[in-house]
Hints:
Elements: H1 2-7, H2 21-27, E1 33-37, H3 44-49, E2 55-59, H4 68-74, E3 77-79, H5 86-101, H6 104-112, E4 133-137, H7 141-150, E5 156-160, H8 162-166, H9 171-185, E6 203-204, H10 207-213, E7 216-219, H11 233-238, E8 244-247, H12 256-264, E9 270-273, E10 292-294, H13 303-321
Parallel strand pairs: 1-2, 2-3, 4-5, 4-7, 5-6, 7-8, 8-9, 9-10
Amino acid sequence: MKRLAEFCEIEVGTDKGILGRQALLSGVREVDGLISLITDNIDSEVMEAGPGLRVIANVGVGYNNVDIASAQQKGILVTNTPDVLTDATADLTWGLILSASRRIVEADAFVRAGKFDGWDLNMMLGMGLTGKALGIIGYGRIGRAVARRAVGFGMSVIYCTRDDIAFRDDPQHNSLVMSRQAAMRAGSGPLNQSARIDGLSPKRVTLDQLLEWADIVTLHVPLAATTQHLIDSASFNRMKPTAYLINTSRGQIVDEAALVDALKNHKIGGAGLDVYEKEPQITPELLTLNNAVLLPHIGSATRETRIAMALLAVENACDALAGRAPRNQVS
Ligand code: DGY
């Protein structure tokens, strides 16, 4: 607020919690720039309500809440806040991996319910991580930060990229990925520079291979037409019955009804979720399943990270309004 006040006049939404639609529509009427949160639906109606808008600075790495095509058409710059939240999100992903695979939340509830009446050889058995395969879907900044942490847990890493998702049904693309794998196995394949991580040899695989081979499947792709319901009932049928699904990206990437079915019928071992398909609503049955760990979208919620995200959004907005190229322009 201090930095913004040095630069421009500020109007702050006064609604408690998520800003209401009417407050948003009337609030943008006379502004040059908007600092929005991922819970604000910035569609063409909002952009039309603010004819002077020159920049929408979204506080978040994801910007699926902004209608990019409308912004482009109206010449409005859109920015996001990548990098500063990479480590916080990767840390929370590991928090979910450990909580789900070692039943930490369930065990805590067990103790609080007064049920702990002594150590038992067979009590609360989970899945060990050492030697298991971590499958990372989406190998951008956050996916790679999650991979780096796998070294400490002695896991191997397999991953697939946005291209492997977009060309999932293209046999030519898939055979190229597989021939690279064969070359790597033979020790002659070049490891993609961006995949290189000390102490690890992450292996690029097709999406279907990843689903079949991984013990932990973790999602790090943005929400787009190609990733909506990327994980559906067919995916759960491919996964190992002992595998865990972790989602700290966007809820709509998973078909939540199919996930509930998979958890209820033990098609997979469990899930760790920070995001939901119709957030903040959660499929009621999910709340009853103790093989799911559920968090309220707190991937980037550390004090340090939230301050860094806010400052970055402010810098992006100020740069755009001053006619300079903002650091994190997405359109
Ligand atoms: C993002 O930045 O997109 C997260 O979901 C919120 O931090």
